[in-house]
Amino acid sequence: MNKHATINKESRVILGSFAVTWEQRKLGEITDRVVRKNTSYECSLPLTISAQYGLVDQITFFNNRVASRDVSNYYLVKKGEFAYNKSYSDGYPFGVVKRLDCYNMGVLSTLYIVFGIKPEVINTDYLVSYYDTNNWHKQVAERAAEGARNHGLLNISADDFFDTELKFPKELSEQARVGTFFQS
Fold this sequence. Notes:
Elements: E1 9-15, E2 18-26, H1 27-30, E3 31-33, E4 47-50, E5 54-57, H2 58-62, E6 75-78, E7 82-85, E8 96-99, E9 105-108, E10 113-117, H3 124-131, H4 137-143, E11 149-150, E12 153-154, H5 158-162, E13 165-169, H6 172-183
Helix pairs in contact: 3-6
C-alpha cells in the first residue's frame, strides 16, 4: 500500500444518550504544509518553540538572538499556523507542536515543520488540545528513523510526520467543544 494513501477509519462512540462519530486520518490530509519563505522580509521577529509557552519571541525567551541576521530564508509563520519542534526537552521526548497565538507573524528556522489546518475538516482548538497530550507520540516513534536523534533533534522527516494518524470527532462542532473543554 502506498504510504500516502488515504485511510479514513470511522468509529462510533456512545456518550450518554448520543453517539459521536470519530475518524482516523493522516495529518497530511487535514493540514497543509507551510514552506513560505520570508524572502520579501515581511517579518523580522525570530521565534522559537517552547514546550511551556508555545511559539515565542526568541530574544525575549533566550534573552539573546539565536537566529541569523538574515532571516530571508526562514519560514514565515502566520497567526493560527502550527509548528513542530523535533527537539527533546524535559518531559517532551518527542518534541512539541504549538500554534502561533501571540503574534500576527514571525519567522522560524527551516529545522521546524510548519503547517496550517484545513478548517473544513479540523478545528484548530481541537488540534491544540490534541498536541498537548502524548497521544501522538507513538505515531512519531513508529516513524522516527534508526539512530533516533541527530544533534538533539528527533530523526523524522516532514513526509513521515505528515503520515502520522490522529483521531478526532467527525463533526466540527464536537471538535470545537472538545478543544474548548480542554483549553479551559
